[in-house]
Amino acid sequence: MLKPAKWPVLARSEERQLVWGECQGSGSTPYRVCGTLDDLGYTCSCPSRKFPCKHTLALFWFVADRPASLTAGAAPEWVEDWLGRRKRKGPTTAPRASGPKDIRAAVEPAVEAEDDAKKAAASARAAEKRRAEREEAILGGLDELDRWIGDVLGEGLGVFPAKATERCRRIASRLVDAKSAALGTRLDELPGAMFALPEEDRQAWLLGELGRLALLTRAYRRLDTLPAGLREDVRRLVGWSTTREALLDDPAALRVDDTWTVVGVREQVQVDRLVRRETWLRRHGAGTPDFALLLDHSPVTARSDATFATGEVLRATLAFHPSAAPLRAIVATRDPNPVAAGPEAALAGGHDGLDEAVRAAQALVAMQPWLDPVPMLVGNATLGRVASRFALTTPDGAFQWVVGASDAAVYALAAAGPATVACLLEAGGVRLLSAATKLGFWEAP
Amino acid sequence: MTRALTAAELGELDRAAAMGFAREAPELPPELRRPGDDAPALTLVAYAAHQRRLCTLPPRAPPGIQRITAPDDPRPPMPEAARASLRRAVAAIRRQKADELLVPIGWALRERGWRLHPFDTEVVAALRAAAGPYERWLAELAGLDLGDDAATADVDDAHWTTLPPGQRAAWLSRRRFADPDAARALLLAVWPTEKAEVRQRLLPAMVVRLGPADAEFVAMLATDRSAPVRAVGAKLATMVAGELDDAAFTALLASSVKVSRVAMIGPKRIALHAGVDKARLFDAIAGRPLTAVLAALGVELDTVLAGTGEITALFPAFGLSALRDGQRARHEQLARLGADAGWNPNEGTWRERLMTLPREERRACLLPLSEGPLTPFLAAALATPGRWFELLGGPLTARGSRLLRASSGWREILGKVRESGGDAELRPVAAFVPGADARAALADLDAIGPNAAPLVRLTWSLLADLALLADPEGAP
Q1: Which one of B2, B71, B452, B471 is most buried, by most CB atoms within 10 A?
Q2: Is the four-CA dihedral B326, B330, B332, B336 of positive or negative sign?
Q3: How far does the CA of residue B62 sit from the closest CA of chain A (Å)?
């Protein structure tokens, strides 16, 4: 990091107490780092979640240890942009002198308002510029992804598993550099998802996943031609996000006020060391969407305590992210009073058999091709065993392998006889969440 | 997409993907092409992935699928009213790693004859984990093929092999106690056809009334294919080697015990010769029926009871010997006499000998001893609670528990709880309190303070609730 060769640009402005540099990382374009020497403010364009990142630390190290490495010069536009946007620590304006008020002060607000309008316009322009830059970076990343998929298919899927982790890590880094973090995470997790499947199923799944990625790159390039909901899905899958505040402020966002049962909670540690917590809700009332997914991320070391427990029943208004098949949501408002209904109430009216449930899931996939996993409610389900694997079966003769369930959990549910099961349809089979049985509400441990 | 891909096109794609598009690139049908698509092969892959997800229905269940059903369990489920408090108590105990408190809970559930709710898998897992040092009866509680001993009481010699392995071991253990030779013959008959895992589970039953007659069977275990079976066999072999044949036994008695008369026609007296190996003698006497011991000595029981001095240390051995003749009252009498004379129940092989008896038999022998006016047994229990709970095979009776709580040892423990604010001393002995006496034990804690020993309080409270649910008439 301290090799001057890695820093094509390393400069300072003495009179403005500014330093900046460009550091060549793993991405195609160098990271831009700048900082102020008077109050030690800083920024860096790298995706690191550490603050300050290693590039910032290296920049200040050069200042302290090798000041001669920095050339004097005028701050480039991107540094000026940052300076314009940043809020300084401490008082931003000098304290007003006390004393008798001057009548001329009355005109100052007008001057300030004018300044604010200018700043807002400049800020909007800067935001638009950043957005355009990001769009360009994303499109570049998607081109790279297409080439990567082409390379993988060109070599043949048989040889891919041996070097899956390394290859996926590399393209994931490129996608993160290209501001497509969500897509990068998906690629990073591809080997884990593949190796979790039985060996005989891996190649078919990999071909499917590569196909879904190729479909996504094509969809993104044709965003303008997609319906509004699907357009938002595609943008979200690539990496654009909507803040909670923005969703709550969006008058067009779908809101559903109903009673909900938490039918399952899953936690997974992602490869980026963030804990992904999925809370699956099932609606008590009729209508669509009948399921909702609350998604939270938190660092491994800082578990959020704002979680729901399986079996919890709540009365709440959920705001759904715009989507062709709305599923992901946030709790907009919640009634603090306890709800009289039991958790089983949400599990009434499941599909009569796996065939019907899977068809309903496919109807959602038809609207949003990347929906995965898909929640389902399967009625009259029983559990069976084939060799050492468990399976969910229904009277229509259909079956699905059960994934991720312990022996104890499966035998406990089986002891209750036929049940209405809330589950997730995913690669390799169904993942059991909870069930309404004659012995009461069952939840996956 | 203007049309669906055909099965042949999809098959061709799969083959090409496996071999590599570099060798054989699949063709995107012309009607699916879009202008400007510079990677039509990838477009084909995208179409295929979407089509397959949309059109693939679940497979049909294979013929070999085995439906999982609940095992038949005639026992009533535990009352719903107690489930929540049971889960809460178990979770709190597990959180604070106080597994010893799970033991009385498991015992109480078993005594009530209730079946755990199958969804309470965390309770089952906790009880299973806690069962480790506390015999098989607690492990059985947590198993799916569990059934209490009473459920197998009517099973005869012709049908014992139809029981699940856990119940078979319990049945065999009782059969050994009633008729060791017949039980060995039954085991020997199925031995060659049983799996190693089952053989290993059945073998500990042979400990009951193990004797020289079992020597041949035990010797056979040394060549068993299974290493765990050979290991159990080695332990049994050591125990068999300690048993003496009739002649050796008579010789040992003759060289160790002096029988004399006060006068020509006076009563006989017995005493030990100097330098006798008392531990060996204790074991030898305990391993024979009392009638055989008395015959070998040539004395009546009254002569033994009138003994003084060092011979009194062997009274508990005579007591165990009486048990072999089915004389529990004699065992109690002899054990008391031994305790009166200063014998420490924690010394010698008395405990180990008792452990070879079925649990019901042990409880029948020991509960009266823990209720008498003299309580050296309770003192021993307080000194090594884990071992004594295992020996006793459950908590004390209500009366025994009251005696325990009135003892100086118990007051000492409560004093430590008061001083330290913790309950480390109380947890191991808390298991001796049965549900019927749990409310009174809670009152003892109240006297210390409302927040004293919260986990023990939670446990006793649950035990009291379970007792009340089982017997509402027993409410105070």
Answers
A1: B452
A2: negative
A3: 8
